[in-house]
Specification:
With 507 residues, the protein is an all-alpha fold. The chain has one domain. It has 15 helices and 2 strands. Strands 1-2 form a two-stranded antiparallel ribbon. Helix 2 (56-76) packs antiparallel against helix 11.
């Protein structure tokens, strides 16, 4: 072989490797680059709107922190809304990102509310904070701590409640700034109770609906006939529940009807949906084969609708976690006063809405895959139960007066579906082993009657009990839930104390 040709081939091979490495590196840098660009744009927008005044630097810094928090909300929290649908293959990851981004932004901008609470869930008493400067740096510390913690949780693959992260941040900074007397312990106790109740309630409701579908649809001789009877009813229950969910969770900032009005309107939506879905399911199921794959197709469209509605409600409700502290900081800087509720400027709302959508696109797929496929295997029926459970649990919690986390409910529902499958599989395994044992004993009895001296005894096949819920993910998520509030509180308190020592805040 020509030495010159050999040398050329080696050089070309090196170039190919360099190009591949460059593409890999550029792909890894795309998301951080876009995130930094968004943070810079948010800071520049704040600078222009502030008019380069005396407090321009603080306003810019606060806007960057709010944008950073919005990115993390999109990266972590939105996975709970679309993850089950993606895991069930009701829609692709790309379509899930597009639908979620549109609905999140629409929810934030249309129903996010013009007025938000400055203090997450009312856990501290702002009247005890005497100096606006102390309040401003406490809010900045809490916002930074919450964002850092949610970012860390996303990195380790744990869906956590951003609301609880903000609660912990506000609590830690408040204690560091004023003292433990600042905390409204009754409110904090109710929030703590919801940590336990909401995921368990969500899991139980999801498991009950899955059991119903298995008994009355999946394991019927005529699956299609059973589907025509029960699926319209289930979709109608979902529609009525989601109407109540949207009013309580998504539209609460702009519309607050009485409980009787919500119940009545939810009933009307239920009846209309039932009447509409009966002929639709009838036409859709015509000519379908009598198998589970056909049933999955019937659940696909309702599941997509539920993911969109969950995203809308989430955007409307949870955008306040990013813009609430930011709006409070701006109000205190501009008016020199501390207020329990403040008006949100449109540019602040835009930062929150766009930040959530961008964070979802850049970093959301990791948590979407975790919730949708890695905790337990999903199909459209299981994912439908998760979505329906989320809506019903929020309604029940609101009736009980409990503050809840949509993250805890959705992930708890995923756990409930998985653990129910484990229970059901284990039960069926026991039945099969008993049947095989009876068959073996009967074979021995027949051999003895025939005078046979030996019989190759049939050893029942040992089926290992499958763990349908990944224990490692389960333990990681539960641990993250337990330490979210104390971790963000400690981090926030530490940041505030550093700021206090450097800038003599509150001294």
């Amino acid at each position: 072989m020509d030495p010159l040709k050999q040398s050329l081939d080696k050089d070309l091979e090196k170039i190919v490797h360099v190009e591949a490495a460059a593409r890999s590196l550029s792909g890894r840098l795309t998301a951080p680059s876009l995130a930094l660009l968004f943070l810079g744009f948010s800071g520049l927008l704040a600078l222009v709107i502030s008019g380069f005044g005396n407090n321009a630097t603080l306003i810019v810094f606060a806007a960057i922190l709010g944008a950073y928090m919005a990115l993390n909300i999109g990266a972590n929290d939105v996975a709970n809304n679309v993850g089950p649908a993606v895991g069930a293959r009701a829609m692709t990851l790309v379509w899930a990102l597009v639908i979620a981004a549109i609905c999140e932004s629409a929810g934030a901008l249309l129903a996010g509310g013009d007025v938000v609470s400055t203090i997450a869930k009312g856990i501290i008493d702002p009247t005890q904070v005497s100096e606006p400067q102390t309040f401003i740096w406490a809010m900045m510390s809490s916002l930074m701590a919450a964002a850092i913690w949610v970012n860390l949780a996303t990195w380790i693959g744990a869906p956590v409640s951003t609301t609880h992260a903000v609660v912990g941040g506000v609590m830690g900074a408040g204690i560091a700034a004023v003292g433990i007397s600042l905390i409204q312990w009754g409110t904090l106790g109710a929030i703590a109770a919801s940590w336990v109740i909401s995921p368990i309630l969500g899991g139980v409701i999801a498991a009950l609906f899955l059991a119903f579908i298995k008994v009355y649809v999946i394991y019927r001789d005529d699956k299609i006939a059973a589907a025509r009877r029960w699926i319209p009813l289930l979709v109608a229950i979902m529609a009525g529940s989601f109407f109540g969910y949207l009013v309580l969770k998504g539209l609460s900032h702009i519309w607050k009807p009485s409980g009787l009005v919500i119940l009545t309107l939810s009933g009307v939506v239920f009846l209309i949906c039932w009447a509409v879905m009966n002929p639709i399911i009838g036409r859709q199921s015509r000519g379908m084969e009598n198998r589970n794959q056909s049933l999955r197709a019937l659940f696909r469209f309702p599941l997509i609708c539920s993911a969109a509605l969950l995203s809308f409600a989430h955007g409307a409700n949870d955008v306040a976690n990013a813009i609430g502290p930011l709006a409070a900081i701006l109000h205190s800087l501009q008016d020199g006063k501390i207020a329990a509720t403040v008006t949100v400027p449109i540019w602040v709302m835009l930062i929150g809405a766009f930040g959530i959508s961008l964070g979802l696109f850049l970093y959301g797929p990791k948590l979407i895959r975790m919730v949708g496929a890695r905790i337990t295997k999903m199909n459209p029926m299981r994912a439908f139960c998760v979505a329906l459970s989320a809506a019903i649990t929020v309604i029940l919690a609101s009736w009980l007066g409990l503050p809840v986390s949509s993250t805890h409910i959705a992930v708890g529902a995923v756990f409930g579906v998985g653990f129910f499958r484990e229970f059901y599989t284990s039960r069926q395994r026991v039945i099969r082993k008993a049947e095989r044992r009876l068959q073996t004993d009967a074979a021995w009895a027949g051999a003895e009657r025939r005078g046979a001296k030996s019989l190759p005894r049939m050893v029942p096949e040992e089926i290992a009990h499958r763990k349908l819920v990944r224990r490692s993910h389960f333990l990681t998520i539960i641990a993250a839930w337990l330490i979210t509030v104390p971790a963000s509180a400690l981090l926030s308190a530490g940041i505030f104390l550093i700021v206090q020592s450097v800038m003599n805040v509150g001294s």
